[in-house]
Amino acid sequence: MMDRDELILNYLNEEIEDIPNIIHENITFDTKYHSRNELDDIKKTVDNYLDGNTSGRFNVLPGIRGVGKTTLLYETYNYLVKDKDIPPSQVLYISIDEVNKILTPDVKEVVDVYLKYKHDSKLSLLDKKIFILIDEAQYDRNWALSGKIIYDKTKKIFMIFTGSSALELEQNPDAARRMDKQIIYPLNYGEHLKLKYNITQDGISNALEKLILEGDINDAIQKEEELNYQISNTLDYPSNDWDIYLKYGGFPILFEETNYLKLRKKMVDMINKVVSKDMVHIKNMSEENKSIAQRILRRLSLQKSNEISQNKLSQQYQTSIGNINLILKILEQTHLIFHCERYTTSSNRSNKNWKYYFATSSLKYVLSSQIGNPLKNKPEFEGILLENMVASTLTNTYLNREDFYTLYYDGKKRGNVDFIVDNGIGNPIPIEVGRGKKDKKQIKNAINNYEADYGIIVSNTTHKIEKDNDIIYVPCKTFSFL
Questions:
Q1: Residue from 168, 99, 101 nearest 134 by CA
Q2: pLDDT tier at 59 (50, 70, 90 boundaries)?
Q3: Is the Cβ–Cβ distance between 428 and 452 less than 8 Å?
Q4: Are residues 120 and 223 in the same domain?
Q5: Other C-beta atoms within 10 Å of 202: how many?
Q6: Which residue among 130, 160, 181 closes a domain?
């Protein structure tokens, strides 16, 4: 029987031999598509490291399945070898999922074997720079500890970890202080256009941010006009592309699939894998809890209102409220869903009153379609999808901002709007979302009640950005570029 070193070495030999061809095939296949913006960030980090800045050498890219994390690693490998002339012998790509098939994975052990047999060295004695690209890191429960040890023992190793879950960041405070984390979110519509059609929209995201946070629409109007002109002159851009994006978009791994039934199946399979595999790597999950998680997701996909009563779920699934709370928390850590708190004093923001949204409107659409949604093809459900799109777009934009903007839902029982954006310093910003002609009454009430300087209506009947006194109108399609 082979010992662990021999098993790991056999894996490494095969991986080192195969990976250049695998990457070449994938990069060549994807040439008609373009790179995520995060690749530019990775390149800058690599360049800084090569220039002698050793602080940013422990990088973590968590995110839901299908958003292109593996492709980013392939492109990084290609950049190192082709553009920066790093010898392939000094760049190692490993998938911990593959290691997991032969033995209980240990990232540090794999790196130790690699250095011992491929470089005749060890962490403390390295005399050249090594680049370690680690995919599916969540299959090693101690990946973060391994990263910390490697980081502390040598400045000669540059690491990127990717994983399809939250990667247990909360449980590794020492490692978290050393790592640079960048969540890879599903594509917003601007990123979708860049990757799929090479339509670039320089400045529109910043202009929309200025519109939302400051009420200044001038730059946004100009950028919207420029972008719409560019789209209208793109020959291979289909007229229904935005509608397809709303229902099936966000995941570049699915760009090649054009059959909607197959698209739906692949996305539902992806959700099922998150529950059956990724949740287990965040916390041990019983089969019963996996089943409850699936039911919660399906219930949420069908709900008109996104508010979830933990008491009702506890009674329906015959489990404790604490267990329901745990399952919801883990579902958030997988990045499948996120919560939105009620806009009220902090003491009243009980998690019993939270609303939950999917990471993309497409996840809500495909999951509800799979289990039978009587509203699927009705205008009312499109409005529900638009609300989810606005919530996820705002959350992905402001979740980790240094100025601490937070997205809330309006907790007033009568005449409420959908969302409130607030940073606790300036005046709140009420936002109303919907399909069809929107009555100004709700947004006017919110502006008055919250003493807001302006309010925003996002609607599919608005064809361009406009401002009428203290109300700003934004088309849904334009908003999705934020």
A1: 99
A2: very high
A3: yes
A4: no
A5: 11
A6: 181
In Å, what is the CA distance from 255 to each residue of 189, 237, 404?
13, 14, 34
CA distances from residue 200 to 249, 381, 395 in whole angstroms, order as listed = 18, 30, 22
Residue where a domain stops, chosen among 125, 152, 181: 181
User: How many CB atoms are located within 10 Å of the residue 305 CB?
Assistant: 9
Helices (H), 179-240: 189-197, 204-214, 218-232
Strand, helix or coil at 127? Answer: coil
Rg (CA), the chain: 24
Torsion of the alpha carbons at 237, 243, 244 and 250, rounded to the nearest 10: 100
- The secondary element (H helix, E strand) that includes residue 161 is strand 157-163
Q: Do residues 115 and 256 both lie within one domain? A: no
Same domain for 167 and 203? no
With tokens 């495909």, the residue in question is 366
Tokens of 184: 């890879």
Range of the domain at 355: 190-479
Quick one: pLDDT at residue 403?
58
Residue 105, φ and ψ in degrees, nearest 5: -75, 145
Size (the chain), residues: 482
Predicted confidence (pLDDT) per residue in 408-467, tens digit: 999 887 778 999 999 877 789 999 998 776 678 899 999 999 999 999 999 988 899 999
| pTM, 2 dp | 0.90
Residue 258 in tokens: 């054009």
- The domain total for the chain is 2
Same domain assignment for residues 173 and 221: no
Q: Which two tokens stand for residue 474?
A: 């934004």
The predicted-structure confidence for 217-247, as pLDDT tens digits, reads as follows 999 999 999 999 999 999 899 999 999 999 9
CATH number at residue 177: 3.40.50.300
Structure tokens at 466: 């406009």
Name residues whose C-beta falls within 8 Å of residue 319's C-beta, 6 or more positions apart in sequence. Answer: 288, 292
Q: Tell me: do 248 and 362 sit in the same domain.
A: yes
d(CA 379, CA 461) in angstroms, rounded, equals 12
